[in-house]
Amino acid sequence: MSESQRFPYVEIDPSLGAASALPYAPIALELDGNVANVSALVDSGAALNVLPYDVGVQLGAVWEQHTIPVQLAGNLANSDARAILVMATIGQFTPVRLAFAWTRNNQVPVILGQVNFFMEFDVCFFRSQLAFEVKPKGSTQNS
Amino acid sequence: MTLSEILPTIQSLPRADKLRLIQLLAADVARDEGIALDVADKTVPIWSPHDSLQGAATLLRVLDEDKVAS
Question: Considering only alpha carbons, which residue of chain B is nearest residue A98?
Answer without folding.
Answer: B63
